[in-house]
Structure formats: structure tokens, C-alpha cells
Automatic annotation (TrEMBL):
<keyword id="KW-0548">Nucleotidyltransferase</keyword>
<dbReference type="InterPro" id="IPR014729">
    <property type="entry name" value="Rossmann-like_a/b/a_fold"/>
</dbReference>
<dbReference type="InterPro" id="IPR050385">
    <property type="entry name" value="Archaeal_FAD_synthase"/>
</dbReference>
<protein>
    <submittedName>
        <fullName>Adenylyltransferase/cytidyltransferase family protein</fullName>
    </submittedName>
</protein>
<feature type="domain" description="Cytidyltransferase-like">
    <location>
        <begin position="6"/>
        <end position="126"/>
    </location>
</feature>
<keyword id="KW-0808">Transferase</keyword>
<dbReference type="InterPro" id="IPR004821">
    <property type="entry name" value="Cyt_trans-like"/>
</dbReference>
<dbReference type="GO" id="GO:0016779">
    <property type="term" value="F:nucleotidyltransferase activity"/>
</dbReference>
<dbReference type="Pfam" id="PF01467">
    <property type="entry name" value="CTP_transf_like"/>
</dbReference>
Amino acid sequence: MIIGYTSGVFDLFHIGHLNLLRNAKSLCDKLIVGVTTDELVSYKYKKAVIPFEERIEIVRNIKFVDTVIPQDSMDKFEVWQKLKYDVMFVGDDWFQNERWDQYELQFKEVGVKIIYFPYTKSTSSTLLNETLLKLRK
């Protein structure tokens, strides 16, 4: 059985989120998804529009998702130590990022593959938030 893992804020759920989850599930038998807690979102000096309890419930009810957990740490290797997943899925906007280059090395040592999916450039929670702010003015 291949266990996959991905994580995200999943605020203002959109087609990019759905594409990530659909593509991830197609490459593993069991997909575990970490939903970022409100406290962790604040590390970027941001605030999620949708509260954590609602975001995790939305993700829990996506048919491609088998298990949902709170993501309360940015340390992906720490999460792996608890879950022991085989493959991790992430958007390609993180490809060749210094932090993810380190993860590549760390995960390679334990046999975990990182798969980068194309980032959905046409939409993002940031873009949706910016559009909503403009509409409200």
C-alpha cells in the first residue's frame, strides 16, 4: 500500500486545491491531508478567511481524501516521523526552493519521494482574496 501526504491551508477552497488532491490520490492508495491550523497560518502574518474547523471539514469531505489531520508544524519531516508516508505531494511553486531542496535530501535518505504538481496559475487563495478586496471597495 502506498501512503501519500500533502498539506495546505485550503482557505477559500478552489480548483487548484481540488486538482492537487485529485492528482495526489491518483498516485497513492491512501491519501492523508494536513490542514494548517489557524495558529500556524499566522506564521506568515496572515489570517485564514475560513476558520480551521470549517476548512478541515471541507477537506475531510472531498472524495479523494482518506484521512485529514491538523497541520500544526511546518516541519514536514517531523510529520513523516509520525505518519511514515511513502510519497509527498506539493505544488511546483516550491520546486528548487532552498527549504524544499533540504527536504529532498532528508526524504531521499528514508525512501520518500516528493512529487511536484503544476501550480494552478489561474487561481489561488491570495488571488481570490485580492479580488474580493477590490470588489468590496
